[in-house]
Design goal:
15 helices, 2 domains, Rna Polymerase Sigma Factor, Chain: A, alpha/beta, about 375 residues, 11 strands, Rossmann fold, globular, seven-stranded parallel beta sheet
Length: about 375
Amino acid sequence: MKHLSILGSTGSVGENTLRVIRIHPERFSVKALAVKKNTAKLYDQAVEFRPKVVCIYDAQAAQKAAPKFKRLKIRVVTGDEGLAEVATLPGVQEVICAMVGAAGLKPIFAAVQAKKTVAIANKEPLVMAGKLLLDAAEKAGVAVLPIDSEHSALWQCLEKHDPAFVKRLIITSSGGPFRNMKGSLARITPAQALNHPKWKMGPKITIDSATMMNKGLEVIEAANLFRVPAGKIEVLVHPEAIVHALVEFVDGSHLAHLGVTDMRLPIQYALSYPGRLEDHLPRLDLTQLASLRFEKPDRERFPCLDLGYTASKIGGTMPAVLNAANEVAVEAFLSGRIGFLEIPKTLEKTMRSHRLIYKPVLADIFAADAWARETAEELL
């Protein structure tokens, strides 16, 4: 029996994690859940899984909801201290990190220092402070496992292979909603950008897919997670979204990870590692595949991808600056304050005006994040 804490249990990754646990109650138990303020959904989860503790980050929401959880004999904690308690709860072996935003950084570091395995779905920890996190995990002797589908695929392809024999890492992209669009992207509306041709996601990640910033951030994640330079990572557009990643070795051979697009697959592998579980998930039927296409992305039309490479190569506090400025710019686009093409321009201007710290500590990362948000807002 593996005991788990889930940060961000009411989001899509959190809910899919609970779906996996529901199928394997003999293998996993939920000891703690954490959310920002969705107390209604959290309560339903608590009734079913009966954790010992829940964290409601928003203090006002926590105060209002506490009596309901008290009747279930579940303790309610709140704020940064509450997140840290959930992440370091005695008896928990693995912490699932799916809480979006910089608020998730501190509890992840706390979990690592408490010698918990961490499985990471949200981008911020590995983008903003990936090197610091991996160094801390190595020092504590614990694993950092990726849940993001592309990075889980790379992890599975790389496992037990000598890094000296790896020539290149390849992550794939569906291409987003504007892959085949002709003409200028200047008049793209939020409604058009949110209309992803393949899957439904939250608004922020959907806009990142439309600008290809999601792949720029994934390059930074992969570089930090697998300790390779960004120049050894390539992004290919793969419209079928069946091959999630490939590894090319120095002899020219490739290993590819194929699977249906379902977040439960990488979540389940992170939970069951180093084993694998049989499940009732959708199966990939190779006979139904008409083709597998791969294309180079149009880096001129989608400059956010190159900004990800640039931030990774510069290192230090620059990835945190890129991530924060992007959050501000995406929100401004969604609210109609700026046009689609202003997103990469805002990011580039923010990066150019940043005074880099080459070897940051965690406090420097948070300071760079705050500075970038303020600077991007001023530019807008």
